[in-house]
Amino acid sequence: MYQLQELRTNPALLKLDLYCKGMRMDDSCFIEEDGGRKVLRTRAGLGSGLEVVLPGNLWTNVPVTEHFVERSPYTLHKGRDGRYVVHHQGEPVTAVTLSPRPSWYEEMTSSGKPMTRVGTLQGTYLGVYPAKVCEYWTEKPEKTNCKFCSVGLNLGVDDADDKTVEEVMEVVRAARRGSGITYVDFNTGHYQGDTYLDILEPFILRIKEELGLLVGVQTPPHRDLKRYDHLREIGVNRVSFCFEIFDRDLFVEICPGKHAEYGLDHYLEAVRYCAELGKRGPKDEPWVSNGEIIAGLEPPESSIAAIDWITSVGAIPTVCVFRPLKGTDLAAAEPPKTEDVVPVYRRLYEACMEAGLPIGCAPNVHVSLVMLPEEARYLSTKRYPWQSFKLKAMAQVVRRRLDRKMAAAEARMAA
Ligand code: SF4
Known about the structure:
Blueprint: H1 4-9, H2 11-21, E1 24-25, E2 50-54, E3 58-62, E4 74-78, E5 84-88, E6 91-98, E7 120-122, E8 125-128, H3 151-154, H4 165-179, E9 183-187, H5 196-210, E10 214-218, H6 227-233, E11 238-244, H7 248-254, H8 256-261, H9 264-276, E12 288-295, H10 300-312, E13 316-321, H11 338-354, H12 385-414
Parallel strand pairs: 1-4, 8-9, 9-10, 10-11, 11-12, 12-13
Antiparallel strand pairs: 2-3, 2-6, 4-5, 5-6, 7-8
The structure holds iron/sulfur cluster.
Residues 45, 134, 136, 145-146, 149, 151, 189-190, 257-258 line the site of iron/sulfur cluster.
């Protein structure tokens, strides 16, 4: 167990410890009355918790409903002064801020759907799951969904099924106006015929044309990798491939649908292929290829091997912490130990810096469901002054270009 002093002074350690142990809420907490976000039922695979902002401006989503939370040393209390304070075994650790609930969360689209059934904020960006449920959940004779996944439990409860371009655009505009979002992330599951990129393209084109925001897509790896050349051309900024597990046997066991349809090698090839596309234009649109893994579903050394492989091909790893969500096939499993995931995140930061990858450059993008590579710097004693200087300069360029794109889109729409 970590010392109280370490948890008080190292927000990345606290973020990881809260992911791994969760937190109970004291009766003094009135999250929604105090402007916080409702704890949504399991959504988008890994999120189910309370959205708060830790010191260092680290946004996070803390487990509050899963089985392991009952024995957590963490509790959240509201003090007499109205501040929310995280306690560890009864001792105050730090004050936190509730992630603000946007006013558009209460609004409806013109078609009569609650806006939160079309898209929700995850940290400070808008996440949209625009199409029907991933077909691994409906496969016959037996479903082949990933064992940790909750998407098929959730859709139709918190999320609307198919969403029209108009509905999504209304929500994106509301989130831009009300929450100042700069980035929209589209997420789909697997559909027969690899239709996910065709489904997403109309949404992407409209957002780029009308708002000029950054856009990312997270889908299975299309069998025709040339399709990503086109995504690069139309201004997509991020493609993300969730292969989750680098250990081949565990991949087959935990992700049977992904294994049968695409196989781990095709995921890896997509990550590598897309990283290469960074060299192409449009030069004024940033581009990253992400390989996404879940720490805690395989041994730490295997997660570290995945990080080293992803960064070796010029892509950026996204590392989630396994959360045994209620209702999933792995609901009864244990979350990882913090001690086991700290070295994984330390390597995440160091590998990205050593490879000179563009981390932390997207303006105003704080992510609650994962710890970002740049946030993991608090876990490393290594310093990279030249690379840090370059990243600061790069972030300024990205910010300026984005401001120009958003202003140009606004002028186009006003004309
Ligand atoms: S591919 Fe796996 S993780 Fe993604 S939605 Fe389908 S079952 Fe869930």
